[in-house]
Design brief:
Blueprint: H1 3-11, H2 16-19, H3 24-39, E1 47-51, H4 59-72, E2 77-81, H5 89-92, H6 101-105, H7 111-114, E3 116-117, E4 123-126, H8 135-139, H9 142-154, E5 157-161, H10 170-177, E6 180-186, H11 192-204, E7 209-218, E8 224-226
Parallel strand pairs: 1-5, 1-6, 2-4, 2-5, 6-7
Antiparallel strand pairs: 3-4, 7-8
Helix pairs in contact: 3-4
Length: 227
């Protein structure tokens, strides 16, 4: 295996909701999806940020599979890579990252040009684009706010894969601009104080926390699942 192939293999996440629709883990993603749908009864929930307290908690896996499950429900869904420091969605879906969100924010290309259709019906991808020197400034720009409004008018659900809360300020910016936030914690890895600190940070920017996904918990059948 070449170095390039190893790098791609390392960064890609598992699309279990697509490849293994009957596994218990996929059913748990559906459960999360239903909770989001029900939470939008009194308040419209269209833009959802998926983040975690720290790196390697499983937030990109959750974001990708949640987007797939929503698309499988017949919802027009867009998955956006707003991790402008360590993007991974383009690896997962095997698409180019030459053009993407950063190009659209800086108006180098039209937004529609940056969006990529996937092999999954109802699911489109907006990769991060080239890594910029100023991620926080781009995400907090008026251009980004305009893009978010535009995407919400075109899709029923927009899922934003954001960086970890305790690492950078980017998730706070996105949480303040979105309709809801899903925080992913990892069983046996995420410390309680880290999770509570991340929760407090999101609440301080008035982020609407829809719930917490517990990643990596084992069932009695020794199968990992998400709840």
């Amino acid at each position: 295996m070449s170095r390039k192939s190893r790098a791609k293999h390392k960064k890609a996440v598992k699309l279990v909701a697509y490849s293994f629709p009957k596994l218990p883990v996929t059913e748990q993603y559906r459960f999360i999806c239903y909770n989001i749908l029900f939470s939008s009864v009194d308040r419209e929930i269209k833009s959802i940020v998926v983040t975690s307290p720290e790196p390697s908690d499983g937030k990109s896996t959750t974001a990708a599979n949640l987007a797939i499950v929503l698309a499988q429900q017949g919802k027009a869904t867009l998955l956006v890579d707003t991790d402008l420091r360590k993007p991974s969605i383009h690896y997962t879906f095997n698409i180019s990252n030459m053009n993407g969100l950063t190009n659209a924010i800086t108006r180098a290309i039209y937004l529609d040009t940056a969006i990529v259709k996937t092999f999954i019906p109802n699911l489109d991808i907006l990769p991060s684009g080239p890594i910029p020197p100023n991620p926080s400034e781009l995400l907090n720009s008026k251009s980004m706010a305009t893009i978010m409004d535009d995407l919400k008018s075109k899709y029923e659900y927009v899922i934003f894969d954001a960086p970890p809360v305790l690492a950078v300020s980017d998730p706070q910016i996105m949480a303040a601009k979105s309709d809801g936030v899903v925080m992913v914690v990892n069983s046996g890895k995420t410390r309680k104080d880290s999770a509570l600190k991340a929760k407090k940070i999101l609440e301080n920017v008035k982020g609407n926390i829809l719930g917490v996904v517990l990643n990596g918990e084992k069932t009695s059948e020794n199968m990992y699942y998400y709840q």
